[in-house]
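[step 3/7] inverse_fold.run input=structure_tokens len=253
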């Protein structure tokens, strides 16, 4: 595993991209006895869908699959079953933030060498992310330094201290529901995560850490309603319905 280093000098854009898929959760809220990332979806593990789709996107080179130590056997089976390219399976940390840092440290030497310029980080629990959305996030991140997929939210309300509805504090058109993959310039996001580790800062997602520790003005691209996160049993049922209705199949890379 790579060790922490000092801040990296900014480089001119060069190199390619790396993809990271996080599968550090459990199946508790889903009512499953195993990590939900390894539950079947149309005959393939949930995690296998996004791994395969990310592998099919031009410009993405290294793929890092971050799992709990106890799930390594499941992860290796997913990789060996269908993907036709190498996936680096590594153990993550106790939190999402630590798992992202472990993935970035895995890529650190390649980031320093300039062979990895941009990193996309995705939740394995969002299996139906499309090839087009990943490509759009990658393109936007390479252009601006940081990008996330998001969907505008209009059906919101604010309650006051007495429990009555109050005017929203912001224009509803400014509210976004953020998804993954989230893409950032590799050297900047690695430095950000190292700084966060030193400060014991824990963000909600990759973008929150970038906002705290970089000067990147993160842009957003239109997300997809089908790129939802599987958290509860009904989410898995919905994913099965989407697969059936759209006749989807994993794009094994």
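[step 3/7] decode complete -> sequence:
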């Amino acid at each position: 595993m790579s060790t922490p280093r000092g801040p990296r000098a900014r480089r001119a854009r060069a190199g390619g991209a790396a993809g990271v898929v996080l599968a550090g959760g459990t199946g508790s809220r889903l009512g499953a006895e195993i990590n939900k990332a390894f539950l079947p979806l149309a005959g393939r593990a949930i995690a296998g869908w996004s791994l395969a789709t990310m592998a099919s996107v031009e410009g993405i080179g290294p793929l890092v699959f971050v799992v709990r130590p106890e799930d390594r056997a499941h992860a290796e089976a997913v990789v060996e079953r269908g993907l036709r390219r190498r996936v680096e399976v590594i153990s993550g940390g106790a939190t999402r933030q630590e798992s992202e840092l472990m993935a970035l440290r895995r890529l650190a030497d390649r980031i320093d060498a300039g062979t990895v310029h941009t990193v996309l980080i995705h939740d394995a629990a969002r299996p139906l992310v499309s090839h087009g959305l990943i490509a759009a996030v990658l393109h936007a991140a390479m252009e601006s330094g940081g990008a996330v997929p998001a969907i505008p939210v209009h059906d919101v309300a604010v309650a006051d201290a007495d429990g009555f509805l109050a005017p929203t504090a912001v224009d509803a058109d400014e509210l976004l529901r953020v998804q993954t993959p989230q893409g950032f310039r590799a050297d900047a996001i690695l430095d950000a995560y190292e700084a966060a580790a030193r400060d014991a800062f824990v963000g909600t997602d990759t973008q929150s850490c970038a906002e705290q520790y970089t000067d990147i003005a993160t842009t957003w691209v239109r997300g997809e309603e089908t790129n939802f996160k599987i958290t509860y049993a009904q989410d898995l049922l919905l994913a099965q319905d989407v697969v059936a209705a759209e006749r989807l199949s994993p794009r094994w890379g």
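[step 4/7] annotate
DSSP finds eight helices and twelve strands in the chain.
The first helix runs from residue 46 to 55.
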